[in-house]
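Take a record:
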Amino acid sequence: MRVRLLESDEFMHPLGPETNFNESMYINCFDHTSKLGVWLRMGNRANEGYAEMTVCIYLPDGRVGFMFNRPNISHNDALDAGGLTWKMHTPFEHLSVDFAGKVLMLTDPYQMSNPREAFKNNPFVECEVRLDFRGKGRPSMFGGEPEEPHERPEEQFARGHYEQLVTGDGSLRVGSEEFAISGFGLRDHSWGPRFWQAPWYYRWLTANFGDDLGFMASRVARKDSGGTRGGFVWDAGQIHLCDGVQISTVTQSDEHFHKHVTGTLSSTSAKKSWSFEGQVRTLIPLRNRRQDPAGNWMHTRISEGMTEWKMTSADHAGRIGYGMSEYLDQIIDSQPVGIAE
């Protein structure tokens, strides 16, 4: 599948006619020394009149500062709403993200399984995030917009989508606590129609082990087909596109939250594979609900796990890194549909 990626894609795209048109940016960053982590996302859904704004901060002691909001918007000119602002400075090389507002302070992040109760029973504190991100330019980019449509209308999740490993530096303030952060992360940018209910389930893994090594692994399952597997590995200054992904998961509790992940990324062109395992340090379960055309509520769970990764393949054995394991599942009869993977 041929894709194109232009410098102009780093900026906002024309608002499409689809009711569910979404343009979003996501970024994460993890400090390997302090074990502090953060991810932020803004998704403009201007034809629906709002943006999806999310801030999630993993504190070293296991607490999580979290905020989700749907601020009103009427256009797709910028990612700037609800106190969260994105600025692109140099395409493929430099951007910054700032947030000022309140976050919910969760001593037990699993309480977000019931967001109404979590928001009712936990305190809000003032929060500021100031982060500056740097990438390694065009050679480090993965993805773009396919030259030919690649999704069925009912399964549209992103017409265009690309990702990049980055370094991040800045500061966080959560209530009276202040932190410096200097670490590594991953960003993505997508645009086009999106329903969170389109995938049957997916597994999205991101990891950085330093400036020279990192990966992204993606497994997207469709209800009536095999779905897709893919990703990339950044290794010694070169990006390797991977067409093979195998993932196995150990879950915990009656809700089957993921706890331990093992996997392998393989590249046919490079004739090479990379194996890894991950232990979830802190997990917060989020959800999205939408009514189908018949008026039935569809329940989607997105479990966001800050994860400590270890490489197990011979050439990088024992390397420790940090990143995310994001598990999306449709919930049927109170169970996630992707338990088997």
In short: Helices lie at 115-121. The mean pLDDT is 96. Residues 23 and 191 are 4 Å apart (CA to CA). The two ends are 26 Å apart (CA to CA).
